[in-house]
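Q: Start with the shorter request: fold the first protein.
A: Done. Sequence, then structure:
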Amino acid sequence: MDFIDTYNDSNLAVITMQHSAKGNRLNKNNLEDLYQAICTSIKDPEARALLLRSNGSRFCLGMDLNYLQDVRKDKKRIEKAIELYTDVLSTIYKSPKPVIALIEGEVKAGGIGLIAACDIVIASENSSFALSEVLLGLIPANVLPFLLCLRIPPQKARYLILTAKKISAREAETLNLVDEVFPQDSLEKGLRSVLKSIFRASPHAIAETKDFTQTILFKEIDSACDLAKTRLLKLVKKPEVLDAVKAFNEGHLPAWFAKFRPKKPIAKREKS
């Protein structure tokens, strides 16, 4: 079975990691497949959003330890795997299209990096999360830029890393690692509700939002305000924005407004 399966349903690019029984472990080959799937989905003109999920009860348990042991003396292969992992996280983060992670079970180590880079993280109540690298004498170095900048305060991140503590979905939501938590039996409904909201928004405005938040991250307030004025003045002059304002004023919907009606369940997974 290939590591990645992709399909498009109602303009949603669904990217499924298919080795849940093995923990969807990340090695050079799997990372190449995941990277290619994400890049292809971003370039797909039919896709308005990306959904990253697993086919079973393990979303991703991080690094493939067998692979690491096999290549422990091959510095170039280790470097390539680390580089690919960083590229995957960066590509998710910089994607002009929203990337949603769907969690229905266990997430550990490098899997935390995958979800930290995503725009929206939705989890079932039975999910769990752990940063377990210190147990192997490692640190989640590639995860931390996304975890600290986007999700969790530094001291909370240190606590989770130093203790390798497993936390529940509700705890993860409190820490801002997860955005929405739903009971398993209402996960499909909750996920669709979030996606329906995204599909009502302007794809251009979503891309601009992602780009602008990256631009002003860690800027001083005065500099950020100056950039905001410049960006907004540019946007309000765009024909599609003016057309949308006119449509709303006349009681119509803008051209980009789309209904999300997938043909099959998107939270359905195999048991593993």
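Q: Next, the second protein, separately.
A: Sequence, then structure:
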Amino acid sequence: MLVRYKQLLLLGVALLVVAILPLAVQASEYGGVSLSWGSQGSAVTQLQQDLTRLGFNTYGIDGKFGANTYNAVVRFQKARGIEAIGIVGPKTRAALSAAASGTQVSRSGNTDTRKYPKLSKVNGSFGQFHYRDLSGGRIEIDPVWIAENIVTIKLPGLNKYVQVNKKAANNFIKAFTYIANGTATISGKSVPLLSLIKTMDGTFVPRHVYWNSTNGLSNHSWGTAIDINAANHLRYVNPAWEPNDPNVILWEKAFKPAGFSWGNSFNDSMHYEL
């Protein structure tokens, strides 16, 4: 009986150690918290900002570790030769920290061209940056340029946080203020402009046009563009034939008054850019 009691006691201690050990491991990881699918909070927000600044876009800064953040972590891990399991452990933390604080390319021209050998075009007042090509048509932009030029804003109406060029922030806020407050008449019925937005993609996404490295750089790389209602809108929309198309209405009611151009002229009616 005593032997049996000792066995049960040892088993209980072992189970307790197994339960406590992951917590001890978590405490040593990113931001003091282990980050993986389902994690939420400020540490995830910081992770998303770091990844996006390094060219691994999480398609939003919302503090929630979901599919887009997981995919960005995996891409970053593959690019750095870390086991690509989508969990932010000590090695990934260290690599993120080194990448964020490593080579600096600033407006003063202090550029390490060995790491960022390519120079973008001058995109009007939004400037230019040094970068390097990654796989799949993606690019990695000098993190100092990103820190100096990319900001996080909240889109009115959608209440979604996105990253855009700081010189474009007011235009984005103006367009979505029109959308949040506006209406349109469709088939004799008044509808909110906000209801016309089914999907919203992009803003700051460092990449080549159509994710093809043989093309030039997309305006998303400067944080000056946005894609609305991508399904069925990678095409030309004829306003005379399709006056009730949501992207035609959003163009006339919001994006045009806010100073944007429309990609409809090059068969990309989902795309609005500055």
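Q: Describe the second briefly.
A: Confidence is low (pLDDT under 50) at residues 13-31, 103-108. Residues 151-273 form one domain.
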